[in-house]
Amino acid sequence: MARTVTAQRKAINTGVAWVIGLLIFFPILWTLLTSFKTEAQAIADPPVWFFFDWTLENYRVVQERSNYTRFLWNSIYIAGGSTILGMLVAIPAAWSMAFVPSNQTRNILLWMLSTKMLPAVGVLYPIYLIFIQLGLLDSRFGLTIVIMLINLPIMVWMLYTYFKEIPTEILEAARMDGAGLREEILFVLTPMAIPGIASTILLNVILAWNEAFWTLNLTAARAAPLTAFIASYSSPEGLFYAKLSAASTMAIAPILILGWFSQKQLVRGLTFGAVK
Amino acid sequence: MEHRKAFASATALSLVMASGALAQELTIATVNNGDMIRMQGLSSEFTEATGIELEWVILEENVLRQRVTQDIATSGGQFDIMTIGMYEAPIWAERGWLVSLDGLPEEYDVDDILPAMRAGLSFEDSLYAAPFYGESSMVMYRTDLMEAAGLEMPEEPTWDDIAAAAAAMHSDEVNGICMRGRAGWGENMAFIPTVANSFGARWFDEDWNPQLDSPEWLEAVTFYNDLIQEYGPPGAANNGFNENLTLFQQGRCGMWMDATVAASFVTNPDESVVADSVGFALAPNRDGVDRRANWLWAWALAIPAGTQQEEAAMEFINWATSKEYLELVAEREGWANVPPGSRTSLYENPNYAEVPFADMTLRSINAADPNNPTVDPVPYVGIQFVAIPEWSGIGTLAGQEFSDMVAGRQTPEQALERAQALVQDEMEAAGY
Amino acid sequence: MSTKASRSAARLMLAPAVILLLAWMLVPLTMTLVFSFQRNLPLRGGFLEWVGFENYVRFVSSSAFWPAVQTTVVVVGGVLLITVVLGILLALLLDQQMWGQGVVRIMVIAPFFVMPTVTGLVWKNMFMDPNNGLLAYLWRFFGGDPVVWLSDVPVFSLILIVSWQWLPFATLILLTAMQSLDSDQLEAAEMDGAGTLSRFWHIILPHLSRAITIVILIQTIFLLAIFAKIFVTTQGSFGTRTLTYLIYQRVLESQNVGLGSAGGIYAVILANIFALFLMRIVGKNLDR
C-alpha cells in the first residue's frame, strides 16, 4: 500500500505484530530450543531459555535409535516421486484443458475437484486390500502412487489456472508462423509455463511431505516416512521431551524452509485458483 | 497346510533367485517397552552371528496391537515376527494365522517355559508364541514413605490396606497412588477388569450377557475412581504404563500398581531416584473375595503364517527368548534387568534369587488363573481380557468411557451404563 | 479455433489424469459400498452374510454415533470460528506498514508447514502435559492449579491445536485477498469521513466475503478428515471421537468392516454436501 502513515502508528503496528507473530511461532521455537537441552533441562522448573549447555546428544540418540536417515529418504522418495509422477500426468491434462477447451472442460475440472473430497477413512479398508493383492503394502512405490492420486486434482487445477493466464494470442501467432504442436509446446508454452510449474511442484512436495493418513496406515517399516517416525514417539518410556524435540525438528525443518519460499503459490493451489 | 508350505517355500525360492544373493532381512513389530528396546540394542549380536538383518517397527502399545491385528486379519504380510500377547495367541492360532513353534530345536527347552505362560500362548498343545517376558501385576510402594507414615504394607494386602497407605503417603509432592487411566484395551482395560475381579464382578454371564450393570462392577469402579481422584496424579486419565513408570521413577508416586516387569526399572539406580526404597506386595483383593487383582500376560514373539522367512524368523525367536539371551542381558546389564517371567530356570538360578523382586513376581504369576478369573463362573478365558475376537473393540470403547470417568467428565454410574450399552452394541453386531 | 487434430491430441493428453482419478474414486468406493451391506468380521473369517441395510441402521443407532456427530460439529465449528475471526484480524494487521513485515509473516505462516503428527505430539507433551508441560509451569507460576488440558477440556484443547495449524492458512488467504483491495476506494471513503469501523464493515468485509467463504469450505473439508492429531493425542478418548475417528475405530479396532464401511458411506455423503457448495463457488470463478 502506498499510503504513508506516521512513524508512531508504524511503531505500534510493529510492536503488536511482532508479539503476535512470536506467540504463534513460539511452539516451533520452543521445540527447537528443547532439542538442544538434556532431558532433565527439558522439564526443568522453572524452564530454561537460552542459557544451558547446548548439546547435540539428542540428535545422535534419535539417529541411532530409529535410523532417521532412512525415514528421511523415504519422505524424499515419496514426496519427490509423487510430484514427478503427478506432473507427468497433470501437465498434459491441464495443458489440454487450458488451450483446447471443450464444453466438457468445466465439468471435468469440477469432477476432479470432487475426488479430492473423498474422505480417506471411507476407503481405507478397500485400499488396504488392493495393496495386499498387488503386494504394495509397506512399499514406497505404492505410497507414492496414492499420494500422487490424492494431490492430482490440486496439481491439475493449479496448473490450469496458470496456463489459463498465458495469452492465447501468442499461440495463434506461433501457429501462423507454421509452428507444429511440438514446437508450440517446446518453444512457446514451456518458457511461459515454467513459473507455474515450479510453484505447483513446490506446493505438492509440501503436501506430500506432511500427509499423515495414508503414510501412517499403509506402512510398517520399509516405506515409513517421517510422519510415522514421529508417531513412534507417541508414548515412550522415561523422559523424552528433548528427544521428541530433536526428532520433530529434523522432521519439519526441510519443509518449513520450502514452505517459506512458496507462501504465495500456496494460496492459489489450496483455493483451486479461486484466490490469487 | 502342506500346500501352503510348499507354495511358500517355492515363492521364497523364486524370490531368492530373483534377487540374487541378497542378505536376509526380517521385519519385527514390537512394543516400545524397555526390555524390547534393549533387545533391539543387543540384536546386532544376532545379526553378526547369523548374517540376518533386522528391521524394527517399534510402536506404542495401542498402535502396535491395531497394526498387527489389521495385518494378520488381511494376510498383509508386512511382518515376519510380531510381538503379541496371551489374548491374540490362541485366537489367531485357531484361525491358522500363526506358524506353530513346535519346530524350535531341542536346546531351546520348551519345557522350561513357566507353565502358566506356556498354557496361555498355546493352542491345542502347540506353542504358537514364545514368551519374551511374562508378567503379572503387583503393588510397588515406597518403603521410606511408609515408614515415615508409621505404616507397614502386608505381603497380601486388601483394598482397605491400599487405600489407607495411599492416604498416608499422599502429600503435595507425592501422589498417594498411581494407576492406569489412559484408555486402551491394553492400558486401563488391563487394569480395571482386575479390580473388578477382585470385587467379584464379571464381564459376561454364562449366556454372554454383559454384566457391567451389576452391583459388583459399580462397587469396584467407584472404589478405583475414588482412589485415583483422591490420591492420583493430575492428568491420571492420560497415564498408561510408561507415564506412570516415569512418575514413579521421579519419586512422585507413593504406590504404583502395575506390571511386575516394572520392578526392574523402578529399582534401577540409573533411571530411578527411589531405586533403593521400593517394596513389593501381592495385588490386593476386597476383604472376603477369593480373587486378587493380578493379571497374567506375556509379551511373546510369533511368526505370522505366510511369511517367506519362516526359518530365519524361527532362528531369531530361538535367540531372543532363549536361556542364552537371559545370560547375555545379565552379563551386560546385570541380573535385575533380565526379561522376567518367562522361564522356570531363571527362578531356580541362585544369582537371580538375590534380585529383590524375583520372589514376588513369581508368586504373582502363580496366583493368576485365566480359566477362573473371578468368583462366579464365566464363559470366557482370560483375566484382564476376554478371549474373543470382539474384545479389542469392546476394550477400546469401554476403556474410553472409564478414562472419561477418571477425567471427571462422568460418574462411575454413567460410565458403566454407557460401557454396558457399547458392549451390548458390539456383541449384537458380532452376532451373539 | 482449434483443429480436429489438436482436439484429439488434447483428449489423449487428458485421458491419463481422468482414467487414474476415475479408478481411484470408483474402485475403492464400490468396494466400500459392497462391504457396507455385508456382515464382515475379519477376525471371524471375513465375509459372513449379506445383511442389507442393517449396518447403516446400526451405525446410526449406536450409542457412540450422536456424540461423535456432536463432537465433529463442535470441533469443525470451533476451529472455523477461531481461524476466520482471528484470520481477518491478523490479515488486517499484517496489511499495515511495519518494520520487519517479512519476518512476522514468516513466523505467522510457519505452523501450517508443521507435520500433523509433530503438531499433535509437541502440543500434547511439551505444552499441555499437566506435570511437565510449559502451560503447567505458567499456571503454577501464577499460583494456579495446572489444567489437565487433554482430559479437563479435551475438545477445547483439540480445537486449540487444530486452530494453531489452520490459522496461518486462513490468514494467508485473507491477506492475499486483502492485498487485491483497491486502496483508492479506501482513501475515498476515508475522505468522505468514514470511520475505521465503517470502512471495515462497508468496504473491507464485503471485499473479503468470497475469500472467507472459500476458507470456510476448504477448511471444512480438511477438518472433517482430521485424523493424525487425534491419533497421537487422545486416540478418541474424552469425547474427542469425531465421525472420522469413529469410523476408523470401527474398521481397525473393532475389526468390523461392514459397520465401518456403512459409516464410511455416510462420511462420503457428508463431505459431498460441502463439496457441492465449494464447487459452485469455484465453478463461478471458472466462468469469469
Summary, kept brief:
The complex is a heterotrimer of chains A (276), B (432) and C (288). Chain A has helices at residues 7-34, 39-42, 57-66, 68-99, 105-116, 120-134, 140-164, 168-176, 181-210, 214-217, 226-231, 241-261, 263-270.
Q: According to CATH, what is the class of the largest domain in chain A?
A: Mainly Alpha
| CATH architecture annotation of chain C | Orthogonal Bundle
Structural Rg of chain A:
23 Å
| Number of strand segments of chain A | 0
In the CATH hierarchy, what is the class of chain C?
A: Mainly Alpha
The H-and-E topology of chain C, N to C, reads as: HEEHHHHHHHHHHHH
Q: Which structural category fits the helices and strands of chain A?
A: mainly alpha
Main sheet of chain C? Answer: 2 strands, antiparallel
Can you give a write-up of this model?
The complex is a heterotrimer of chains A (276), B (432) and C (288). Chain A has 276 residues and is an all-alpha fold. Chain A has 13 helices and no strands. Chain A folds into two domains: 53 residues, no CATH class; 203 residues, MetI-like (MetI-like fold), CATH 1.10.3720. In chain A, 74% of the residues lie in helices and 0% in strands. In chain A, helix 1 packs across helix 12, helix 4 runs antiparallel to helix 9 and helix 7 packs across helix 9. Chain B has 432 residues and is α+β, with helices and mostly antiparallel strands. Chain B folds into two domains: 191 residues, D-Maltodextrin-Binding Protein, domain 2; 212 residues, D-Maltodextrin-Binding Protein, domain 2 (3-Layer(aba) Sandwich), CATH 3.40.190.10. Helices cover 45% and strands 12% of the residues of chain B. Chain B is built from 18 helices and nine strands. In chain B, strands 1, 2, 3, 6, 7, 8 and 9 form a seven-stranded mixed sheet that branches. Chain B has a two-stranded antiparallel sheet with strand order 4-5. In chain B, helix 8 packs across helix 9. Chain C is mainly α and 288 residues long. Chain C has a two-stranded antiparallel sheet with strand order 1-2. In chain C, strand 1 and strand 2 form a beta hairpin. In chain C, helix 1 packs antiparallel against helix 13 and helix 8 crosses helix 10. The radius of gyration of chain C is 24 Å and the shape is globular. Chain C starts with a helix and ends with a helix. The mean pLDDT of chain C is 85. Chains in contact: A-B, A-C, B-C. At the A-C interface, helix 1, helix 4, helix 5, helix 6 and helix 7 of A face helix 1, helix 3, helix 4, helix 5 and helix 6 of C.
